[in-house]
Amino acid sequence: MKKIFLLWSICFLLADQGWAGMLTGRIIGGDGKPLSKTSIIIQGIEVMTNEFGGYEVQLPDGESELNVDIQGKSFRTQKISIYSPQTKQNWRIDSNEKLLKKAP
User: What is the model's pTM?
Assistant: First the structure.
């Protein structure tokens, strides 16, 4: 009986754990230049881009539109599916639509 209770307890605890994947890529400005050495906030998590506009942030797995703050301006992304262990997505800033569009 104790083994069954222990097994049930472990399953219950693990069921509540969400998987998280690393989202990586580059952010390119509307002018075609990388958004280098810039603090950005993705889903409430602050990260710094590198000299090539590269970023990485750990987010829950699943499909969603992300909210990104760049230099005090809010942008949303096109839908993206994030899967463990890593998803790569480059973005291009579209200031007119306040949107980060998927880029190659």
Answer: 0.78
Q: For the purposes of burial, counting CB atoms within 10 Å of the CB of 59, is it exposed (0-12), middle (13-18) or buried (19 or more)?
A: middle
Cis before 34 (ω within 30):
no
Q: Using one digit for the tens of pLDDT, what is the confidence trace for 53-79? A: 999 999 999 999 999 999 999 999 999
Judge whether 94 and 30 are in contact, CB under 8 Å.
yes
Tokens of 69: 């703050």
Phi-psi region of 32 (alpha: psi -120 to 50; beta: other; left: phi over 0): left
What the chain holds in terms of domains, given with CATH numbers, is: 19-103 (2.60.40.10)
Give the number of other CB atoms < 10 A from CB of residue 38: 16
- Closest by CA position to 43, among listed 66, 65, 60, 62: 66
